[in-house]
């Protein structure tokens, strides 16, 4: 290829170009460069090649512009070839073909490259004047070649080379080239293009930016201002700054664009803009500089003070930072003083908080603000003014201003301590230490500490700070965590400063208290602070351990917390292992330690073991340490200070080689669990024991021990309450004596006295129930429980105990709902996780004591098992309700030996005569509190209701919801009865007991409403709603009304707030019996009895009384009204009715059904001659519930139809009572309310 080119070059320039265009540009570049650079200055080609190049370029461009009439260049003359060409015929044919657009662009690529390497000839063989014509033609037609990026690149390289070599006519090669290059840099976003633009910056000066034809270039240049690549690169920022000097108009547009970007710019972008403006300001003068100063910078300073948000003000200051950080540059300080001084001093004293806050930031950025040309006296006066304003702002009303002021003052003191007068320093620092450190604002106190930490960086301030820092000691007890962390940071800083002692700033006892009780971030820093003193690594291990023992004896819990963070703060693992040995020896030493120290040592050992077990180098030694006799000794020592749970945790972490006596200790701990529910410390101990048991695979042993106690309690229940014992609960040793599983009831409990042993067993079972509930919360313990062979026996025992707890709760003070809760939780979890009793315990090889699995009621179908549990619980509660419910004293069974001998109150006696605490005394002399038993019963029934709702929510109500709804209704009725008795002083509940009852009421309301929701979700034509849902809804409304009637509006208002979310379900339940009924007669039959009357629930009577009360007040004139001011009746229930009206108006069909219920109730009042009930309900329906516009009334078909029966009855009753004053006024009022609606209904009937 190179030989052919060389041959054509020796022939002529035209032949050389013709041969070159037949090659691809990439492959031809090396050969073309080599051949052209080897041309000697004396060669004829130095003259002919530029001319031929110009001719070829011109003809190619002409052909490109006019593709339909191409003017192909004539074939250059050639000598006769030395040998015939094999492809001569093909070449002739190709020469005769018309060139395409693509081939023309390719030719121009070759010509542009030839021109470029000719320009770069190392000996300057080619005259620029000869090359210029072709180069200029390429440049002038640059815009035509936008589709060919390669050609554009070659032409731009050629023009760039021409400009850099300062060749003739270079100013004529920029009009098309520079806009292309700028556009290329904006499009391709390559740093090299930005660098090329900046390198050619001087060429932009030649443009006339006032001419209209320059607009496209101006738009490209303005785009550079917001292009990230220009802002990120040094050359890009320099070029934008250079642009500022090209034109005033271009400068204004660029500055306006920068200003518009400030509110949204990132930190790097804003700093880049500041640098650009500063560079531009330095490089221009005259009008351009004045535009930057008075137009842009002045606006920024004013905007920084008047900004509506702190973020916007900070963004503006970031741009101004380029000037404030370059104050040493000549002219900058004077500029800032001239622009900022009047604005800042004026804004610092205005009433607007934002303006003061923003102006303070500006002052601190520019401090000291001074005129470099002013006299010393003027400068001192101005400086005093600034200090005066700073001191004033330290006491500003706005916390944000004080926050900035205190940080700013500390910064000024650190930077200018040497030049600030001592009196000013004293005054300012006194305010900071005495006032700002006690500021009411948390942020200001935190800023004070941060400022003092920054001030410590100036050594000249140390002498004064050494005196003042103890004033900050109490801040380590600040309630704000971040402030306490800042105090510890301050102490850590001064620990490394010569002459300071941290214990003189914060008392050591305070530090130890903080270490023991504070949160981890603070405690860790305090540990870092105390580590060099109490566990130094520069002494031997024995000395370090001795020092720590001193610490833990002085403050046991602080020492324990110290061990938690010692490893993470750099303490050696070998030192920590030695410390574990020392502490265990201290616990086992003959010298007795007190309980607090003993507990602290165990906590410390636990923390140390947790840290050391992460290190492979100390793991084996630690395991060996906690084994054999050492472990036995620790077991004995752990009984002091309730440290057993800590030891169990240690063993779980360490997993020692040999365990000795641990299982017995764990079982002893978990089986002695009386009075557990309120003892958080013992609960933590039991959880640790559970964790250890699971870790050591001893769960079956522990659960069998717990189950055995439950079995004993169940057998005790059957003996004492004369209940048949299920066969699987009778121990095998007793079962062998006889086939009957019925206890005689005349054994050791036959004397009828309550044995203390049974009571102890029951209370212990309560603790076991708590443990079962806690074990169910963890997946691992839950699985272990289900795998245990004792699981069936545990469920059976809980079943019997739960039955006794429910049915005999009113005869024993110690009966508890926890056992019922555990029984229900187990049953529910078995069903939810689809666990069959057939598979329970199949992974365990252990045998339970006397458990006869064949007698256990197997239930492979988990849903039927859950239904059996629910049936059992409902049967127990139904027996209570059927014999008087909560209103009955004692047990419901005459067979109960304890209850049969109790002294019960006569039914006719309403008040307790001799016992002020409503207690009854048995004939054995023991007292029992009826209030306590009533509360226990309420808790148990609430738990049963929750269980019912859980079962219903899981769709496990296999036999329908009627029975569950009936239980709910009975329970709510009994609660209303209980509240009534409490209000009559038959039950003098204590305040705490009353709060617990109302907590159960709130929970019960939610559960009952949720049950209604679940039941109503299943309504359809094939499965209508249970009629019991209507009763539950009425009883819920009765409950709210009764709470307000018997307990006051305070309790009722809280219940109404809860009821608001469930009100749509309650309203729907009121209409549930009639939703699928088509005829009016069917709906009426759902509400009235055989006597034709509707049962009037208490809430309807209360609603009628509320309406009557309102009507009477409305009838009073102003004078009488002033005298008859009464307290509003039932405000909470009235609020509930307003909410019900809003809900009913959402759906006119439901409104029609419920409104009909109110009208049927009013008709019942008319029949019973209860005109108050009639008047109140009619007033509620037609004044509040139903609007009187035709659009609304026309949709209430059933109400209007029933009104055809009701209105004539009212008219007739009015005529009958005309001669009687009783009720006549109410009847006339009812007739007046009904008449317009009745007339409208008649019109509607006639139209139909």
From TrEMBL:
Species this protein is from: Carnegiea gigantea
GO biological process: mitotic sister chromatid segregation
Coiled-coil positions: none
Chain positions covered by the region annotation Disordered: 64-100
One of the record's GO cellular component terms: nucleus
Name of the protein this chain belongs to: Condensin-2 complex subunit G2
A Pfam family reported for this protein in Swiss-Prot or TrEMBL: Condensin2nSMC
């Amino acid at each position: 290829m190179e030989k052919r080119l060389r041959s054509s070059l020796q022939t002529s320039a035209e032949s050389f170009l013709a041969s070159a265009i037949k090659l691809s540009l990439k492959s031809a570049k090396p050969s073309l460069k080599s051949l052209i650079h080897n041309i000697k200055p004396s060669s004829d080609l130095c003259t002919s090649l530029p001319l031929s190049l110009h001719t070829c370029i011109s003809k190619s461009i002409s052909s490109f512009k006019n593709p339909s009439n191409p003017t192909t260049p004539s074939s250059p003359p050639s000598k006769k070839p030395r040998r015939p060409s094999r492809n001569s015929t093909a070449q002739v044919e190709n020469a005769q073909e018309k060139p395409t657009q693509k081939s023309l662009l390719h030719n121009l690529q070759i010509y542009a490259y030839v021109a470029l390497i000719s320009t770069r000839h190392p000996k300057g063989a080619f005259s620029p004047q000869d090359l210029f014509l072709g180069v200029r033609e390429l440049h002038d037609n640059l815009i035509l070649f936008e589709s060919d990026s390669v050609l554009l690149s070659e032409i731009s390289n050629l023009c760039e080379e021409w400009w850099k070599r300062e060749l003739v006519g270079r100013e004529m090669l920029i009009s098309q080239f520079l806009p292309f290059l700028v556009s290329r840099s904006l499009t391709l976003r390559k740093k090299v293009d930005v660098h090329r633009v900046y390198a050619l910056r001087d060429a932009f000066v030649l443009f006339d930016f006032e001419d209209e034809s320059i607009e496209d270039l101006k738009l490209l240049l303005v785009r550079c201002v917001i292009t990230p690549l220009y802002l990120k690169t040094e050359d890009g920022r320099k070029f934008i700054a250079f642009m500022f000097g090209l034109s005033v108009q271009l400068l204004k547009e660029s500055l306006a664009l920068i200003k518009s970007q400030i509110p949204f710019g990132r930190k790097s972008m804003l700093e880049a803009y500041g640098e650009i403006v500063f560079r531009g300001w330095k490089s221009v003068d005259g009008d351009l500089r004045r535009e930057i100063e008075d137009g842009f910078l002045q606006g920024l300073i004013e905007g920084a003070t008047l900004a509506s948000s702190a973020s916007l003000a900070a963004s503006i200051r970031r741009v101004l930072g380029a000037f404030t950080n370059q104050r040493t540059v000549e002219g900058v300080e004077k500029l800032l003083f001239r622009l900022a001084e009047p604005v800042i001093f004026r804004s610092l004293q205005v009433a607007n908080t934002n303006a003061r806050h923003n102006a303070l930031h500006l002052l601190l950025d520019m401090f000291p603000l001074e005129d470099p040309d002013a006299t010393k006296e003027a400068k001192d006066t101005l400086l005093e003014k600034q200090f005066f304003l700073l001191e004033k702002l330290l006491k500003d009303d706005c916390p944000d201003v004080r926050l900035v002021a205190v940080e700013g003052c500390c910064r000024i003191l650190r930077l200018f301590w040497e030049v600030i007068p001592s009196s000013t320093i004293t005054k300012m620092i006194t305010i900071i230490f005495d006032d700002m450190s006690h500021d009411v604002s948390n942020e200001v106190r935190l800023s004070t500490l941060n400022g003092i930490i920054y001030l410590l960086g100036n050594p000249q301030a140390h002498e004064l700070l050494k005196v003042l820092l103890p004033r900050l000691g109490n801040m380590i007890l600040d309630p704000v965590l971040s402030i306490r962390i800042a105090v510890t940071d301050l102490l850590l800083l001064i620990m490394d400063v010569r002459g300071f002692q941290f214990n003189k700033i914060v008392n050591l006892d305070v530090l130890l208290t903080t270490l023991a009780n504070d949160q981890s971030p603070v405690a860790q820093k305090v540990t870092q602070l105390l580590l060099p003193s109490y566990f130094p690594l520069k002494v031997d291990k024995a000395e370090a351990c001795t020092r720590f023992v001193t610490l833990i004896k002085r403050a046991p819990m602080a020492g324990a917390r110290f061990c938690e963070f010692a490893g993470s703060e750099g303490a050696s693992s070998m030192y920590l292992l030695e410390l574990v040995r020392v502490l265990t020896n201290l616990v086992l030493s003959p010298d007795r330690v007190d309980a607090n120290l003993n507990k602290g040592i165990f906590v410390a050992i636990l923390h140390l073991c947790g840290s050391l077990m992460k290190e492979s180098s100390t793991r084996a030694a630690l395991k060996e340490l906690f084994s054999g006799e050492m472990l036995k000794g620790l077991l004995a020592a752990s009984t002091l200070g309730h440290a057993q749970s800590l030891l169990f945790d240690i063993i779980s972490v360490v997993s020692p080689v040999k365990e000795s006596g641990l299982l017995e200790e764990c079982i002893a701990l978990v089986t002695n669990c009386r009075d557990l529910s309120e003892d958080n410390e013992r609960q933590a101990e039991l959880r640790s024991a559970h964790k250890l048991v699971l870790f050591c695979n001893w769960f079956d042993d522990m659960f069998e021990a717990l189950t055995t106690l439950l079995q004993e309690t169940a057998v005790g229940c059957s003996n004492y309450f004369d209940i048949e014992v299920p066969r699987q609960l009778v121990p095998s040793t007793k079962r062998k004596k006889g086939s009957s599983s019925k206890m005689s009831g005349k054994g050791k409990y036959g004397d009828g006295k309550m044995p203390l042993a049974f009571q102890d067993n029951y209370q212990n079972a309560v603790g076991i129930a708590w443990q079962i509930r806690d074990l169910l919360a963890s997946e691992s313990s839950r699985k272990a429980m289900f795998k245990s062979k004792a699981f069936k026996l545990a469920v059976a025992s809980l079943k019997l105990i739960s039955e006794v707890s429910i049915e005999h709760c009113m005869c024993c003070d110690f009966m508890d709902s926890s056992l019922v809760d555990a029984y229900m939780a187990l049953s529910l979890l078995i069903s939810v996780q689809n666990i069959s009793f057939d598979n329970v315990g199949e992974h365990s090889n252990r045998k339970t004591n006397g458990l006869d699995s064949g007698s256990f009621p197997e239930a492979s179908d988990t849903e039927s098992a859950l239904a059996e549990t629910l049936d059992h619980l409902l049967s127990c509660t139904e027996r209570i309700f059927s014999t008087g419910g909560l209103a009955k004293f004692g047990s419901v069974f005459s067979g109960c030996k304890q209850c049969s001998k109790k002294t019960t109150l006569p039914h006719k006696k309403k008040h307790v005569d001799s016992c002020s605490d409503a207690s009854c005394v048995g004939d054995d002399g023991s007292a029992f509190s009826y209030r306590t038993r009533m509360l226990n019963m309420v808790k148990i029934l609430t738990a049963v209701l929750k269980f019912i709702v859980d079962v219903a929510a899981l769709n496990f109500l296999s036999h329908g919801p009627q029975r569950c709804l009936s239980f709910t209704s009975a329970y709510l009725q009994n609660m209303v009865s209980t509240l009534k008795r409490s209000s009559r002083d038959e039950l003098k509940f204590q305040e705490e007991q009353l709060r617990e009852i109302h907590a159960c009421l709130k929970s019960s309301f939610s559960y009952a409403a949720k049950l209604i929701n679940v039941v109503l979700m299943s309504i359809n034509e094939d499965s209508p709603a249970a009629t019991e849902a209507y009763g539950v809804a009425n009883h819920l409304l009765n409950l709210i009304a009764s709470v307000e009637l018997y307990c006051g509006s305070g309790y009722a208002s809280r219940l109404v707030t809860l009821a608001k979310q469930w009100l749509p379900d309650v309203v729907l339940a009121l209409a549930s019996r009639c939703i699928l009924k088509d005829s009016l007669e069917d709906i009426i039959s759902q509400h009235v009895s055989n006597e034709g009357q509707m049962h009037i629930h208490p809430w309807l009577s209360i609603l009628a009384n509320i309406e009557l009360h309102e009507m009477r007040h409305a009838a009073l004139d102003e004078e009488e009204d002033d005298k008859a001011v009464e307290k509003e009746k039932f405000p909470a229930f009235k609020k509930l009715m307003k909410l019900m009206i809003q809900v009913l108006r959402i759906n006119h069909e439901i409104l029609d059904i419920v409104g009909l219920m109110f009208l049927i109730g009013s008709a019942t009042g008319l029949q019973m001659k209860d005109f108050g009930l009639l008047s109140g309900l009619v007033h509620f329906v037609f004044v509040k519930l139903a609007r009187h516009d035709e659009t609304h009334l026309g949709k209430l078909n059933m109400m209007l139809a029933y009104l055809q029966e009701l209105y004539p009855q009212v008219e007739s009753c009015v005529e009958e009572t005309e001669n009687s004053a009783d009720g006549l006024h109410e009847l006339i009022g009812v007739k007046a309310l009904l008449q317009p609606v009745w007339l409208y209904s008649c019109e509607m009937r006639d139209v139909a």
